[in-house]
Amino acid sequence: MSQFEDIPKDRLSGSLRRGAVKKHVAAIHVSGKLSLLQRKLSNVLLLNAYDSLTSQSTHRIDARTLCLMIGYNSNDTDTLKAALRGLAETVAEWDMLDADGQQEWGVSSLLAFARLKSGICEYAYSPALAEKLHDPKIFALINLNIQRRFTSGHALALYENCYRFVRTGSTGWWSLDLFRRLMGVADSPYYDEFKHLNAKIIKPGVAEVNRTSNIIITPELQKMGRAVTGIRFLITENPQLSILDLDDGEGVRNSDTYARLRRLGVSDRLARQWIAEHGEALVLQKMNYVSGQEGVRNPAGYLAKVLNEGEEAATGKGRAVSPRNPARPLTLRAQQLERVRDLAAARTPTQRDADRRLFLARVQGAAREDFERHGWMSALNAAAIRDFWAEVFPDAFEGLE
To answer: Which domain holds residue 146?
Structure first.
């Protein structure tokens, strides 16, 4: 089942994690052969759009972020156009039980449209496909850090189709016809012979998955006489690379720190991100600090500033004044810092990661170390940071005094 599986695990229910996936997970098959670039591209586009799949008809991501996240560091827009064209020309087909237990079949192009304009990629899914893609029962998490390690589209497809069964330990039996479809080689007569399929797809795919990813897979064959009729893969976690797997959030959500963040109005994703980045002890310490300040109108926003800039910067050189009512007018530098902080906070997690990587590629030595330590608040990189955000948003600093 060619899946788009880079969806956060917090979207999955506890019963799905426990293995009820066998009965309830639907299948979305992709016809035709997707290249490695196209497969990675489809995953990143879906990750970028996932939170608003059913509430927005179109989605946007800047093109350089898109290229970076798929590991394509090039200004060759023709290649990106060709990959987007391929997704628009590729058919997705589903065959599943709906909420009432009725069988439902459907078909749609992977992308309803895509366009590149002024450095922005805008795209859309058909309403029917968007609804299916947003169903949390369909997907498991695929870490983009793992995805970028793959060099073969067939191996990535094999990983995607096996990883969703990691909790159950086996894919179950697939007919060879279905397996060829999942690997995108159903239209090639060369792979009708199992020896070719095994030599070119199965063996190298298994080797790359086991070498590259956070799971170990073992193929088993089903035979009728001497003829191979089916295949399944046994799946175990790869202890050497399990660190690449993202926290599913279950442990974090049971903590008091997480609960306090949520009561402050911090979103689920941001609460888990802060705890992962800063550590539960530091987040708790800063929350206690914020709760002890008077005149704070927006505790969540103030906490974000304290975590990102430190207590002194957040309170005006150490004075505990309300961040909404500073004791003196902000300097131009301080206004620029606030604008940068707001711009960075408004980006999606995917875009924030890409922004940092893109900026880090511009600096070296002490400047790079200072940015790694202080992020967008790095004083040593002030001018470069301003130029970077002015390139992303040309009117970013208009109106500052």
So the answer is: 140-247
